[in-house]
Amino acid sequence: MQNNSYTVAVLGAGNIGSAVIARLLELENEIVDINLKKVLVSDISKDRDVDKKLLTDNFSDILDDQSIDLVIEVLGGVDPGKEYIKSLLEGGKAVITANKDIIADCGSELVQLAQENNTCLYFEAAVAAGIPVLKPLIESLRGESLKRVTGIINGTSNYILSSMEEGSSYTDALNTAQDLGYAEPDPTNDVEGVDAKFKAMILSMICFGANPTPENLYTEGISTITKEDFDWANRLNKTIKLVAVIDNENEGFNARVHPVLIDTKHPLAAIRGSLNAVVVEGENINQLVFSGPGAGAAPTASAIIGDVLSACHQLSSDQSNWYPLRSQKFENKEFKNVSSSWFVRLSVKDEPGVLASIAGTFGENNVSIESVIQEGRGDQAELVLVTHEAPEEDLQNSINQISSLDSVASVTSTLRVYS
Amino acid sequence: MQNNSYTVAVLGAGNIGSAVIARLLELENEIVDINLKKVLVSDISKDRDVDKKLLTDNFSDILDDQSIDLVIEVLGGVDPGKEYIKSLLEGGKAVITANKDIIADCGSELVQLAQENNTCLYFEAAVAAGIPVLKPLIESLRGESLKRVTGIINGTSNYILSSMEEGSSYTDALNTAQDLGYAEPDPTNDVEGVDAKFKAMILSMICFGANPTPENLYTEGISTITKEDFDWANRLNKTIKLVAVIDNENEGFNARVHPVLIDTKHPLAAIRGSLNAVVVEGENINQLVFSGPGAGAAPTASAIIGDVLSACHQLSSDQSNWYPLRSQKFENKEFKNVSSSWFVRLSVKDEPGVLASIAGTFGENNVSIESVIQEGRGDQAELVLVTHEAPEEDLQNSINQISSLDSVASVTSTLRVYS
C-alpha cells in the first residue's frame, strides 16, 4: 500500500454502519491510515456515536468531494443505494457495499461499471457476512471450473432448524429467534428463503457467470417443516437444512433454494445455530468448505474492513480490482428438469392395495422407489417413501396424482434428499 | 488484468510441476493469456510430457530472460530453490512457490525482498494445498486481531488417525497410507509432525507476525497412539487428531504440534481422511473454518494457478502484492508454560491407597483432577484421569513423579485435551 492515507465516506450509520465506523477509527496505523471524512445520514440532528462534524444529509457532499477515495454503502434496501453506487463508480471512487439486494439486482452491471472506470467494487459482506468466501471464489478459484456450490446462507432459518433438531417446535424456535434478535418481527424473508435467494443470485454470478432472475430461481422456505419431519430425519441418520444449491454441469445451469434432508456426516449437517457455510465443488479441488458467522454487526463489519484493506491496496494501481467475470458455460436448465430424490410422507387408509396404487402412480411417471416404510394401522396409517432420483416435474406430477387417490388421506410432507 | 499476456517459467517438472504445466497450458484465454517460455529441469534428455524446446538445465536462462514476468518454483527442498527465489525477486520477477520448507525457513525475509523490489511473492499451496486459506488470512482478515489458529495440516497423519478411528491399528493404517501413496516409504516427516511444524511456522508468521524456530516449536507425532486410546476417546465422545495450535493472547505467543483428544462435535473432528482444515478464531469473526484437500498434485496445482492469476492481476501495478506483515503483539511463551487439560492412562496395582498417592502427586504440582475412572482388577487395573487445565511443566512433573510411584506399573498414555 504505497499511498498510506485514504479518505473514506460511509453511507448510513445504522447498526452495521456504526460498527464499521468504530472499526475504521481503530484500524491500526501499521496497516493503513484511514481518514473518515463524511457520514451520510437521513437525520443530522439525531444523537449518534459519530462526530457531528462528519455528518451530512446531502449525498452530493460525498459524490463531489474529490478527496474521497472510497465509499462504504450500508444503507440497506435497493433505493437510493443503487443509484448512489452507480454515480460513485462513474466518478471513479472505490465502493464497498454489504447490500445483497443491490448486488443480486445488478451485480454484473456494477462490476462492469467498476471495470470501465478502472475502480474498485467489493461486496464480501453481501454473502455469508463474516466468512471470507467471495474473494477466494472471485480470485483464488477463478481458474477452477466449478461444478456445484451449496450454501447454508441464511442464519435465521438455520437457527430455527437447529433448534428443531434439538426438539423445539417451529413456532417455539421462531419465537426464540425473534427474542434473540435473529429474526425480524415479520420473518418472511428469512423463513421463506427470500434472503437466501438473493445470496444465491450473487453466488450464481460469481461462480458460474449466470444471472438467474428472482422469478426463475425456485425458492421454498422452512415454515412447513414439522417436528415429525425431524423425527424421520433422525431415523434415517439425516437432518434438515435450508440450502441454496447452484450447479452447472453438462445438463445445464440451475440455482434453487429449498430445505433438504441431508446426511448427518455431510459437512453442512454440522453447521448449527446462526452459522453459515458454503461448500464449493470442482474437479481439481474436490470439495472445499468455508464456514463461520453469517450475520451480525461485528462479522459484517469484519468483512467490510477486509474489503477496505483490499481496496486501499488496489487503489494505488490504476485498474479495477476485478478479474474477468466468468461467462456462463451451459444453458439455463428449468427447475422442472432438475433431478432429485424425494422423501415423501403420506397419510393413507390401511387397506389392501394402497401401496400398489401409489407405487403404480410413481411408476407411470417414471419415478422409481428406493424404500418404503409403513407405520401405524387404521386411520393413523402412514406411508414413508424415498424415491430414486427423478426430474422435479415427474415427482410433482406423481405427488399431485397420488394426493387425489381415494386411499390417500393427505400428503403430509415432501422433502428433497441432498446427495 | 490490463496486460493480457504474461510470460512464465517453471522451476521443476516433477509430479506437481507437470500438473502445473498442464493447467497453465489449458488456462482459458478469457481469464489471462499465459506464454510458458521455459521449464528448468536437471536432466533435459529425460522423456517428459513437456515440449523439449522449453526445457533448460541452466537457471540463468530464466533469471536473465527479461521477457519472463513470473516464475513458479516447484523443485522441493530448501536448496537450490531458496537462492533461486531470492535472485528472481531481486531481479523484480514475480515468484510463486509451493515450497513450505523455504517459506518456513525464511518466509518473512522473502516477503520483505518482494516488497523492496515492488514485486509479487505468493505461496498459497505451501499450507493446506488446495484450500485457499493463506490469501484470506493475509488480505481479507488482515484487519482482525486473531486469537488462535488451529489446523489439521498434514493429510497423511489425518488419514492414519481416521483409519484408526474406524478400527485399524496404527501399523495397518500406515501400511495402507503407504500403499495409496499418501505416506512416503520413510513416513517420519508426516507421522512425527515435522511437516505440520513447517506449516505451523508459516501460519505463525502470517497470522501473528511471529517467527518461531523449528527448535522452539514443540512437536509430537502420532506414532505412539494406540487402538486403546481411540476406544477411550470414543467412550468420552471424543476423537484424536494431530493439530497445530497457534495462539496469541495476553499470556503470550506459542505454536505447537501434537495430537489432541477433541470433542466429536468440534468442526475439526469431522475432517477425515487426507483432508485438511484450518480454524481461525478472533473476536469479530468468532470462528471461521476452511477445509478441503490438503495434498495431491491437482489441489496443489489449483492453488498455484490461483496464485498465477493473482500475480498476473497484480503485475500491472508497480507495487508488491503484500499488505504490511503483522507484527508480533505478545512475547513468546515457552511451551512449558502453555496450559492444557490432560487425559492420562495409568497401569496400576489394584491396592488401597493407589488413587490417594496419585492424586497427592498431582496436587503437590498444583494440578487438579476433573475425573477419574478405574477399570479392571489385580494386575490388569487401569486408572484413567482427566485433569483440569494446568501448565505443561506442572503436568509433566506430575507424570514423571507418578511414573516412579511403587503402585504405578506404567504411564500407558498421555494426551492433551483440546477445548
Number of domains of chain A: 3
Greatest interface and its residue counts? A-B, 53 and 52 residues
What is the CA-atom radius of gyration of chain A, in angstroms? 24 Å
The assembly state of the depicted protein chains is homodimer
- β-strand amount of chain A: 25-35%
Distance between the termini of chain A: 45 Å
Task: Assign the CATH topology of the largest domain in chain A.
Answer: Dihydrodipicolinate Reductase, domain 2
**In the CATH hierarchy, what is the architecture of the largest domain in chain A at level 2?**
2-Layer Sandwich
Biggest β-sheet description of chain A: 11 strands, mixed
Q: What is the CATH superfamily of the largest domain in chain A?
A: Dihydrodipicolinate Reductase, domain 2
Task: Give the integer mean of the pLDDT values of chain A.
Answer: 95
Structural class of chain A: alpha/beta
SS summary, helix count of chain A = 13
* Shape summary of chain A: elongated
The residue fraction in helices of chain A comes out at 25-40%
The CATH first-level class of the largest domain in chain A comes to Alpha Beta
- SSE pattern of chain A, N- to C-terminal: EHEEHEHEHEHEHHHHEHEEEEHEHEEEHE
